[in-house]
Amino acid sequence: MPPRTSVPSPVRRPLVVTGDGDLLDDLLRLAAAGGTEVELAPDPAAARTRWLPAPLVLVGVDQAQPCLRARLPHRPRLVLVGHSGQLDPGWQVAELIGAEHVATLPAAEPWLVDRFAEHGADGPVGPAARVVAVLGGRGGAGASILAGGLAVSAARARLRTLLVDADPLGGGLDLVLGWEQLEGLRWPALSDADGRVDAPALVRALPSRGDLVVLSWDRGDLLALPAPAMAATLDAARRGRDFVVVDLPRQLDDAAVTALQAADRAYVVVPAELRATAAAARVVAAAATHCTELAVIVRGPAPGRLRAAEVARALGLPLGGTLRPEPAIVRGLERGEAPAASGRGPLAALCQRIVAELTGVPSAGAA
Ligand SMILES: Nc1ncnc2c1ncn2[C@@H]1O[C@H](COP(=O)(O)OP(=O)(O)O)[C@@H](O)[C@H]1O
Ligand SMILES: [Mg+2]
């Protein structure tokens, strides 16, 4: 993957997903009446990267089934739109793709003009946050440590950072940071969120220190994470933060799929061992259908002298980096010290490079 020193931030205009020329003509006319331009995507593949960042998404009835098949995540402010007569049985598919409204033309024209005016005139929107996802090729691979290190490194570079724990079985990412005593909301209190999450409010409610905010599981009864809660959280974070790290479970549930689809890049952490590589192949196969920007991080030691490049080649992925074993991290964890907090060592160096590549913001080195 070529290093990117500065990444253009996505333009945040309403997104129209349709391959129907007549419908498109009508929607462009209505958007103009609402005083906004729109982003166009003829199909879900073209829509994918703009799906969650867009302030409003209109899906033409011709693309409803394709969007469903593509498993695009549920998101707020999603409207299914078509001409009268086309939309039968529109409500059923609308519910399946998570549309909040079904707009039938021409009756809904004034309503749509209002929506375009409301969401197109967002004014000068700041650049959306970069989202990076991390998952382990096998249990204990070091994914959560890398996720913590990335978040700590981003916050050290003065990026407003959100670390999201999406692994219900991971034991709580707040523990990785040594933050388990910190006051603030955890997932169980937020997980019925499905509408628009107010980004500043979300951030105020979560445990935080400086520029780093964490949305973690607690150690209470296990709950599943609803995909709409993840979508709403990432939607809010994209608007209110600079950098988002999501620690994913290896078994991808709907919330994890939502996060992967929202990610600008995902890393699979794989110990440099044959069996770990074999296990990782399955994780990679599942993840690759939801994220094209996938790379592998190989973690030592390599007891059989397996080389990082060989692991990456076996998985058919670019090598995103390597990690030497770092006993100091493990000792630090026991003392409640967050990974990469000193800014020194192989993990910190790797995390600083990744943050810089994704954001263009240079790293803050050792303290
Ligand atoms: N960079 C590292 N250096 C040394 N040990 C590590 C490193 N990363 C992880 N570990 C060890 O592996 C264990 C599991 O890491 P963790 O990040 O929780 O894995 P995962 O989230 O992939 O299950 C840690 O508790 C630690 O002992
Ligand atoms: Mg983990």
Keywords:
367 residues, alpha/beta, Rossmann fold, 2 domains, five-stranded parallel β-sheet, 40% helix, 17% strand, globular, disordered N terminus, binds adenosine-5'-diphosphate, binds magnesium ion, ATP binding, Rv3660c
Structural account:
This protein is α/β, with parallel strands linked by helices. It has 2 domains: 106 residues, Response regulator (Rossmann fold, 3-Layer(aba) Sandwich), CATH 3.40.50.2300; 230 residues, Rossmann fold (3-Layer(aba) Sandwich), CATH 3.40.50.300. Helices cover 40% and strands 17% of the residues. It contains 15 helices and 13 strands. The strands form 2 sheets. Strands 8-9-7-10-6-11-12-13 form an 8-stranded mixed β-sheet, with helices on both faces. It has a 5-stranded parallel β-sheet with strand order 2-1-3-4-5, with helices on both faces. Helix 12 links the parallel strand 11 and strand 12. Helix 6 packs across helix 15, helix 9 packs across helix 10 and helix 10 runs parallel beside helix 11. The N terminus is likely disordered. The structure holds adenosine-5'-diphosphate and magnesium ion.
